[in-house]
Amino acid sequence: MKQPTPLQLREAVEAALRDGDVTPGTYTWPGGAQTPALYTGDPPEGVTVTGLEVLIPATPDSDVISTFAGAITIDRYPIRAVAHDGQSLTPFFTALASAFRSVAAPQVLQATDRYPDQILVTITP
């Protein structure tokens, strides 16, 4: 099975959120430009965020399974959602669960100085 490129994965996550009526928050870049708070990797220093931030890893976690026919690699993507405005993260999980073939139970991450309430949802496209 062909794995998605980072751009294809981002587009699939964006479509899943749109279909689930989940609206990402807003990034404000140095200079004032604003974009949806949906990013592959970590946003650069100086970018501020409001609302729901969705962070997609640039590279997947991989499992290699040995079979009689040879090795099979299954890529998993731990997608992090951060509620900078205190909103519920349940709709985010529900949107991903309805769009991808395999979605692990969400892992709640403890709030830090940089990140408030957040969850990690691992998907297999």
From TrEMBL:
Superkingdom classification of source: Bacteria
Name of this protein: DUF3168 domain-containing protein
Organism this protein belongs to: Deinococcus seoulensis
